[in-house]
Inverse folding.
């Protein structure tokens, strides 16, 4: 009897895994109810600009039929993984229009920023 | 006389009881999701300054070709709103972040009216004092003149939508000029719009 239920349990587990949005980059974490919405991060690109500052652009898509107001918070890290305090580390709103992709660009506050951690969530109105 | 005293005491007691019903709490500035107000609050200054800083750094306007720092002087920042604003609420954040970026250093010895910190000039008067070791007094020709100047304006427009609603628009406009050439090397504008009750005050 117990063995009969096992395939069902495995199926449910697989289904749950398929439902969970897999992050394209572990440095980007999506919070709260945002998981429940049909928004995905599709690409993360970074480069060092002519001022020797790290620039990051994240691309995502809002597959919902509603406009969403999202916000991000980025922490900049040096090559030892230490946080670089910055006034740019704060929740910043950006738009995600329905059924379209969106892009957000960020720039490091100092030349010693080599890595980052981004949190994204839906704005709580 | 007794009647007035009783009324006064009752009024004071009522005020105390009202205050007791509304406890004071600290704002969590890292996660403040409280509703907006018609006037400008710290979140609006955060937004305007962050956009200006990011835009300045991305433009490359503060990147000196020889790798050294630009010296920045703060020029006039006009408050053209109906609110009593200290424009340092905006400018200080920009200064701090530009300094931390390693790209810019701000002079406090040069300003439009008087120096932000007049001590640099004041301390030079010690050259005439026999009480001070003269080799510890600031020497002539040591101060650094500014390369860049930051100026700007905060504008407010109030519009009536209908008998119940109003709209307040705020424009944060900044310009970064090369003092040598007089040309603006960077310009930025952040617009913040608010819509709310006519009862709400935006001044």
């Amino acid at each position: 009897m117990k063995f009969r239920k096992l395939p069902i349990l495995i199926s449910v587990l697989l289904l749950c895994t398929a439902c969970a949005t897999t992050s394209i980059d572990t440095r980007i974490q999506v919070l709260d109810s945002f998981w429940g919405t049909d928004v995905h991060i599709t690409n993360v690109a970074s480069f060092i600009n002519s001022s020797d500052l790290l620039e990051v652009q994240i691309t995502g898509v809002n597959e919902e039929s509603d406009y969403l107001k999202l916000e991000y918070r980025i922490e900049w890290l040096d090559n030892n993984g230490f946080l670089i305090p910055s006034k740019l580390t704060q929740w910043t709103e950006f738009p995600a229009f329905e059924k379209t992709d969106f892009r957000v660009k960020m720039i490091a506050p100092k030349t010693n920023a080599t890595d980052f951690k981004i949190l994204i969530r839906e704005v709580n109105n | 006389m007794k009647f007035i005293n009783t009324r006064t005491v009752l009024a004071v007691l009522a005020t105390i009881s009202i205050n007791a019903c509304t406890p004071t709490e600290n704002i969590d500035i890292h996660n403040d999701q409280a509703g907006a107000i018609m006037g400008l609050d710290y979140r609006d200054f955060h937004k305007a300054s962050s956009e200006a800083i990011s835009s300045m750094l991305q433009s490359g306007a503060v990147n000196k070709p020889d790798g050294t720092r630009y010296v920045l002087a703060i020029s006039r920042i006009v408050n053209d709103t109906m609110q009593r604003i200290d424009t340092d609420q905006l400018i200080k954040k920009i200064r701090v972040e530009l300094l931390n970026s390693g790209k810019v250093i701000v002079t406090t010895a040069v300003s439009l009216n008087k120096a932000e910190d007049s001590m640099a000039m004041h301390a030079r008067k010690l050259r005439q004092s026999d009480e001070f070791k003269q080799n510890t007094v600031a020497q002539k020709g040591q101060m650094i003149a500014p390369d860049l100047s930051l100026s700007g304006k905060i504008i407010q427009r109030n519009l009536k939508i209908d008998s119940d609603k109003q709209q307040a628009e705020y424009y944060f406009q900044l310009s970064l000029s090369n003092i040598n050439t007089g040309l603006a090397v960077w310009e930025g504008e952040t617009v913040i719009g608010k819509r709310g009750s006519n009862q709400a005050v935006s001044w």
